[in-house]
Amino acid sequence: MPARFQIVFDCRDPDSLARFWADALGYKMQPPPPGYATWEDFLQARGVPEEDWGEASAIVDPGHTLPRVYFQRVPEPKTLKNRVHLDINTGVREGESDEEHRVTVAREVQRLTDLGATMVEDHEGGHEHWVVMHDPEGNEFCVQ
Question: Between the chain's N and C termini, which has fewer beta carbons within 10 Å?
Answer without folding.
Answer: N
